[in-house]
Amino acid sequence: MFKKQILIIDDDEDLSFVISDMLENYGYKVTCVIDSESAFELLRNNAYHLILLDINLPDTTGFELCRELRRTSDVPVIFASARTSEIDRITGFDIGGDDYLPKPYSMKELLSRVNALVRRTYGFGKEEIIISFGNVTVNITARRVIKNNEIVSLSLKEFDLLAYLCENRNTAVSKEKLLSEVWGAFSITEPSTLAVHIRWLREKLEDEPAKPKYIKTVFKVGYILEAAE
């Protein structure tokens, strides 16, 4: 089953380990780092569904990291910090944080906040997420694609790109948004890489790749997956 990925950015490694263990027991995939440099490196090459962010970091503040992140991504962010003043909480929300959890907190409360934000953002539940268009069926939950009753082999990035287009079907998505959400918020991936992956998807899924019926280019914007609701 497809697991939502969470990035924890906190220099308290013992606490991060406890949180990671708890969240993974509830079906999430968790990665932990202790500073912004490590976080930026991961965000350049990976897309996460939620970030749990401390404010006091060794090399910067969580506020500065969030400001930088919001230039390219709207990934949900929960601030978790021992800084509990009203001005800190207001700052966290003003710069783009989605929730603010003061330390110390219970694991039950943290899990509840994470679950609520994930559900609110992605509609995440127990039911499988399946999108169909033409003779293609995409099971986002199971990460499986079938065309004409045969499984289609896709690379990790091909599937991630297709899944994002499916989740935003019938909506034009900019190239910048796709690069940010699929390749990572701080990715240095060139737009040409996106174009190549789109071509590969068309070759595997469209009956006439040169005249795509579903995965279409939107002039001066990006791409759209046209699928019946």
**Morphology:** elongated
Please give the number of β-strands: 12
What is the spatial order of strands in the main beta sheet? Answer: 2-1-3-4-5
Contiguous runs where pLDDT drops below 50 for at least 5 residues? none
Sheet/helix structural class: alpha/beta
Q: Give the H and E element order.
A: EHEHEHEHEHEEEEHEHHEE
With helices defined by DSSP (H or I, 4 residues minimum), what is the helix count?
Answer: 8
On the 0 to 100 scale, the average pLDDT is 91
Helix coverage percent of residues?
Answer: 40-55%
- Strand content is 15-25%
Distance between the termini: 24 Å
Q: Give the biggest sheet.
A: 5 strands, parallel
Tags for this entry?
229 residues, alpha/beta, 5-stranded parallel β-sheet, 4-stranded antiparallel β-sheet, 21% strand
